[in-house]
């Protein structure tokens, strides 16, 4: 069985299990998993960028665009279903990246990280100032139906959760297949040696630009899903510390598998819900220490532990 | 014969240093040409100028009649003017096979964009296997490039240049870093692999024995100029070449320094 | 006219504050190639240390004028205690790794320090406003400014001149320049690069803490006060060019004046004007205003 198919099947099986388990889970667990999936989508985009050799400290920008676009879509365009709201969020974020990418695709290393951070802070400033969008308070976002199912109905209750799972499946399998394609193989090549990629006849800038847009679409979808799950958006989504959290998930997960960000985000959300209850003032301490430990001792992320074990067994 | 590569008055200055001084070079299709010259003579600068890594201060570069002066490397590569590197530029985190597939994949994507499909052509994967055999890289197929010995990285670097379907290939010191008793074996292998595809070759080389064995023609560089150009025997006998490149004292000049 | 004067004066005061902090950030980057995301937390540490020590000093009934010395002392204390602790305890294990990895390491450090501050000082705010009010106000045309603002400007000028003298006028400074230029060759020539890194990081920490300590009397010292400072300092050094001291000075002035112009003339853009300028500068000078282009690689 090809690795691509194995990944797809593994993800499908996980989703199926999650779908069956959903009605049995308490409400908070369903919420927690939805949020984890939404954040994992952003981290999946970061995985693609990190494979290309780039770390963005500004993915909060696209996350916020996705969340706000979903809300504005519900308000101004009178969307009542969650599906077009998520699609709009993803498209809006992709469009923003298409424009900003003209500039961003020229930057590398810390300059790329800082410039993306600057853009997200500009959006933060804009959102805080715009009273039409609720300034610092943001505004409420709600979908009445998901796939046409009323969110108040027994099945529709799990609508956003199901939608998140579906987007996650499409996103993860899509990125996995992409990374195994001729174009996707350029990602590690660019990270290793841009000059050689140019000398093989490919445009590094165009590939980076494409990856920026792909990562933004994923982050936008994640933002829209978060807005729907929480029922609210605010400018904090664009603040640099939000972007930092996505970087944390991506580092924790590593870049070796498209499934890793989902595991990483789930671990983060579980840890968070426990930490908030028992030690609210040491949450960042825990996150920071875990991050240091991963960087120093597991540079390829937590997922690499499973991989090494599998390789050792084989 | 027609010129596949032609430069006229190609000049590059870095501040007060002239690294290429009004170079007029005509390379015929199908030939094998050696570039010789001491360190800093301007050989690599010439390759960098022709392939678009450096923009010339003045002068032009024509490839197959097309003006490519100042074009970026990727466009020049796409036309079929490719190069290898003195220090191997390989993708360290990819295996030898994947390194080749990067280039083969780029070529295949471009073909698909033009013709709609790669009908009747071998898949990039099949071509990669065939190239690995041809360059005797088979044993290293699944090894990461970062772990390969220097000589193998050198071979891989050249194979990667060949993977993007050149019509003319510029090899920058293909045998540097390779022990002298392996040089001939390496060059035999490389030139055989390249000539099989009818590619014009230009290579920079320090070892005169290697140059003499393979080329039809030699260009001798000194301080950014070409001091001799012609058949190997002719160039080797040129007094300036003997003095500046081969490093022999001038005839009858024991006390002349 | 009055507004113009106000813009200039406000801008220069704000720039002075920024320069003290950004100078520390840029020197650490220039020497160690570490873009320190925890710099804002070190700033906050300076503010907390200053608020605690100056508060204790005043409560003990010592001469109020002495509190200025206590502020500076607090910054030095943070610099020589926390700086070496972080450098020896964490950063030295990461030398030689990618610049981006070091950004991530210091980001983790930022998260840890933010909570450590809360654990030590709690979540309530601290005030130590006496040094601020003590000097009174000065009339500047129709405008009235607290004299304390001048302290900030003087401190920035002193820091700038001291750094200039330290780097170009002393033997240690010349060694520093050698390390900035080429770490490996410097080590090969027998320069003790490890010691230079230690001193540099302690210096960077002191400057961040000094920025915080001098700010402490003018604000309420609260958790999270360093979070915005770090991105502002980033903007300054990215505009000026990472690792460039004149760049940090010019960058501070640009950011200071842009912000005060925004405050006076277009308050609705105040929050993001600085980042807009940063993005614009990077669009035209990808490595900032004061950094030369790199040499050829092949």
Q: Summary?
A:
The complex is a heterotrimer of chains A (314), B (257) and C (298). Chain B has 257 residues and is α/β, with parallel strands linked by helices.
What would you say this structure looks like, in words?
The complex is a heterotrimer of chains A (314), B (257) and C (298). Chain A has 314 residues and is an all-alpha fold. Chain A has one domain. Chain A is 71% helix and 3% strand. In chain A, the strands form 2 sheets. In chain A, strands 1-4 form a two-stranded antiparallel ribbon. A two-stranded antiparallel ribbon of chain A has the order 2-3. In chain A, 55% of the residues are buried. In chain B, a hairpin with a 2-residue loop joins strand 1 and strand 2 (17-28). Chain B is an alpha/beta fold. Chain B folds into 2 domains: 3-88 and 164-246, Rossmann fold (3-Layer(aba) Sandwich), CATH 3.40.50; 91-147, no CATH class. Chain C is an all-alpha fold and 298 residues long. Helix content of chain C is 73%, strand content 3%. Chain C is built from 12 helices and 2 strands; from the N terminus they run H-H-H-H-H-E-E-H-H-H-H-H-H-H. Chain C has helices at residues 2-32, 39-59, 67-89, 99-121, 130-134, 147-168, 171-181, 183-188, 193-215, 225-240, 245-265, 270-284; strands at residues 137-140, 143-146. A two-stranded antiparallel ribbon of chain C has the order 1-2. In chain C, helix 1 (2-32) runs antiparallel to helix 11 (245-265), helix 2 (39-59) packs parallel to helix 4 and helix 10 (225-240) crosses helix 11 (245-265). The mean pLDDT of chain C is 88. The chains are: A mainly alpha (314), B alpha/beta (257), C mainly alpha (298). Chain A binds chain C through residues 55, 57, 103, 106-107, 109-111, 113-115, 117-119, 121-126, 128-129, 195, 240-241, 244, 247, 251, 281-285, 287-289, 291-292, 295-296, 299, and chain C through 35, 90, 93-94, 98-101, 103-105, 107-112, 114-116, 118-119, 123, 227, 231, 234-235, 238, 242, 268-273, 275-276, 278-279, 282-283, 286-287, 297-298.
């Amino acid at each position: 069985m090809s690795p691509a198919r194995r990944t797809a099947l593994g993800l499908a099986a996980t989703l199926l299990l999650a779908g069956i388990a959903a009605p049995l889970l308490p409400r908070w667990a369903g919420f927690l998993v939805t949020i984890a999936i939404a954040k994992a989508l952003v981290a999946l985009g970061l995985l693609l960028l990190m494979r290309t050799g780039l770390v963005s400290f500004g993915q909060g920008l696209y996350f916020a665009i996705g969340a706000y676009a979903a809300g504005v879509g519900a308000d101004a365009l009178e969307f009542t279903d969650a599906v077009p709201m998520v699609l709009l969020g993803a498209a809006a974020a992709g469009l923003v990246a298409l424009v900003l990418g003209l500039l961003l695709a020229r930057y590398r290393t810390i300059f790329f990280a800082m410039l993306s951070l600057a853009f997200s802070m500009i959006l933060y400033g804009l959102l805080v100032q715009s009273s039409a969008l609720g300034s610092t308070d943001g505004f409420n976002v709600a979908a009445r139906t998901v796939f046409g199912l009323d969110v108040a109905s027994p099945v529709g209750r799990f609508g956003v959760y199901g939608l998140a799972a579906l987007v996650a499946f499409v996103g993860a399998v899509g990125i996995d297949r992409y990374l195994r394609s001729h174009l996707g193989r350029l990602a590690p090549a660019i990270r290793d040696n841009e000059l050689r990629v140019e000398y093989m006849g490919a445009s590094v800038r165009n590939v980076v630009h494409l990856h920026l847009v792909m990562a933004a679409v994923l982050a936008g979808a994640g933002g829209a899903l978060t807005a729907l799950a929480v029922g609210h958006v605010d400018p904090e989504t664009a603040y640099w510390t939000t972007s930092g959290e996505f970087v944390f998930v991506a580092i924790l997960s590593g870049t070796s598998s498209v499934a890793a960000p989902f595991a990483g985000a789930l671990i983060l959300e579980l840890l968070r819900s426990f930490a908030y209850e028992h030690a609210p003032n040491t949450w960042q301490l825990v996150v920071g220490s875990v991050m240091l430990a991963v960087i120093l001792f597991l540079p390829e992320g937590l997922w690499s532990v499973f991989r090494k074990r599998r390789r050792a067994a084989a | 014969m027609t010129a596949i590569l032609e430069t006229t008055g190609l000049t590059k200055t870095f501040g007060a240093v002239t690294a290429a001084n009004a170079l007029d070079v005509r390379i015929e299709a199908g030939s094998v040409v050696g570039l010789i010259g001491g360190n800093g003579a301007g050989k690599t600068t010439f390759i960098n100028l022709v392939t678009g890594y450096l923009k010339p201060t003045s002068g032009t570069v024509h490839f197959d009649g097309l003006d490519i002066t100042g074009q970026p490397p990727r466009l020049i590569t796409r036309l079929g003017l490719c190069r290898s590197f003195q220090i191997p530029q390989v993708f360290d985190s990819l295996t030898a096979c994947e390194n080749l597939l990067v280039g083969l994949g780029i070529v295949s994507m471009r073909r698909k964009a033009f013709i709609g499909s790669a009908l009747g052509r071998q898949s990039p994967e099949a071509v990669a296997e065939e190239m690995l055999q041809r360059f005797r890289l088979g044993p290293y197929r699944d090894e990461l490039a970062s772990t390969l010995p220097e000589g193998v990285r050198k071979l891989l670097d050249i194979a990667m240049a060949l993977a993007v379907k050149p019509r003319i290939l510029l090899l920058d010191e293909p045998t540097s870093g390779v022990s002298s008793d392996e040089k001939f074996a390496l060059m035999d292998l490389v030139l055989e692999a390249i000539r099989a595809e009818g590619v014009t070759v230009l290579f920079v080389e320090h070892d005169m024995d290697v140059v003499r064995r393979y080329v039809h023609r030699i260009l001798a560089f000194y301080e950014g100029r070409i001091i001799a150009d012609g058949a190997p025997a002719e160039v080797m006998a040129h007094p300036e070449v003997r003095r500046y490149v081969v490093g022999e004292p001038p005839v009858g000049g024991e006390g002349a320094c | 006219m009055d507004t113009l004067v106000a813009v200039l004066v406000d801008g220069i005061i704000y720039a002075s504050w920024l320069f003290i902090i950004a100078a520390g950030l840029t020197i650490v980057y220039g020497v160690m190639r570490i873009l320190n995301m925890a710099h804002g937390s070190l700033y906050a540490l300076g503010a907390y240390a200053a608020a605690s020590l100056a508060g204790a000093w005043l409560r003990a009934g010592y001469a109020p004028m002495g509190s200025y010395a206590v502020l500076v002392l607090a910054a030095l204390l943070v610099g020589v205690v926390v700086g070496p602790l972080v450098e020896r305890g964490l950063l030295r294990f990461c030398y030689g790794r990618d610049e981006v990895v070091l950004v991530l390491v210091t980001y983790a450090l930022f998260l840890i320090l933010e909570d450590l501050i809360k654990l030590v000082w709690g979540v309530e705010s601290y005030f130590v406003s006496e040094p601020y009010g003590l000097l009174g106000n000065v009339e500047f045309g129709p405008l009235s400014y607290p004299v304390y603002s001048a302290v900030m400007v003087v401190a920035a000028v002193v820091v700038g001149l001291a750094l200039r003298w330290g780097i170009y006028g002393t033997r240690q400074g010349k060694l520093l320049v050698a390390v900035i230029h080429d770490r490996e060759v410097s080590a090969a020539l027998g320069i003790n690069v490890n010691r230079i890194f230690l001193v540099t990081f302690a210096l960077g920490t002191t400057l961040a803490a000094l920025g915080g300590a001098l700010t402490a009397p003018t604000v309420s010292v609260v958790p999270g006060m360093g979070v915005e400072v770090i991105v502002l300092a980033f903007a300054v050094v990215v505009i000026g060019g990472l690792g460039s001291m004149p760049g940090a000075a010019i960058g501070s002035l640009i950011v200071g004046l842009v912000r005060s112009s925004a405050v006076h003339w277009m308050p609705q853009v105040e929050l993001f004007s600085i980042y807009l300028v940063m993005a614009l500068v990077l669009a035209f000078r990808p490595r900032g205003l004061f950094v030369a282009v790199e040499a050829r690689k092949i």
